[in-house]
């Protein structure tokens, strides 16, 4: 069914009596959008805090379930593994090379802002 004449419908809609909006509607909209306070934490900060809390809970559970000797043994194993990893000259060379490239790129690119930040300043 094809109906191209909406004039009668438009007249009926415009003839409807409209209710006046509340006086504080604009203020309520601005308070909920533009003037809303910034959140206390950013999403990545919440993720980091959650990870730290999870690790702390895991360590507390280790101490409660196995006692202090198991916890100390776990820390010694982690330290020994880290020491073996960082005493490898090849690993240290790759870490140094990566750091040098990161610094070199940072210096020669001039710390360019992101495209989103540039667009925001143009408005």
Structure report:
- This protein is mainly alpha-helical and 123 residues long.
- The protein has helices spanning 7-15, 25-32, 43-86, 89-109, 115-122.
- 0% of the residues are buried.
Topology of this protein?
Layout: H1 7-15, H2 25-32, H3 43-86, H4 89-109, H5 115-122
Helical stretch count? 5
Termini separation? 46 Å
Whole-angstrom Rg: 31 Å
Summarize the main sheet.
Answer: none
The residue fraction in helices comes out at: over 70%
| Residue runs with pLDDT of under 50 for 5 or more positions | none
Question: Quick check: average pLDDT?
Answer: 83
Percent of residues in beta strands? under 5%
* Helix-strand topology string: HHHHH
Rough shape? elongated
Structural class designation: mainly alpha
- How many strand elements? 0
């Amino acid at each position: 069914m094809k109906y191209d004449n909406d004039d009668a419908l438009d007249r009926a809609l415009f003839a409807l009596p409209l209710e006046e909006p509340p006086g504080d509607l604009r203020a309520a909209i601005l308070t909920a959008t533009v003037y809303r306070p910034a959140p206390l934490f950013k999403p990545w900060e919440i993720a980091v805090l959650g990870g730290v809390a999870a690790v702390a809970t895991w360590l507390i559970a280790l101490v409660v379930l196995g006692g202090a000797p198991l916890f100390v043994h776990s820390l010694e194993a982690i330290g020994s593994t880290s020491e073996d990893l960082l005493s490898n000259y090849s690993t240290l060379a790759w870490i140094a090379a990566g750091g040098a490239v990161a610094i070199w790129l940072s210096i020669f690119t001039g710390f360019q802002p992101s495209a989103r930040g540039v667009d925001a300043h143009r408005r």
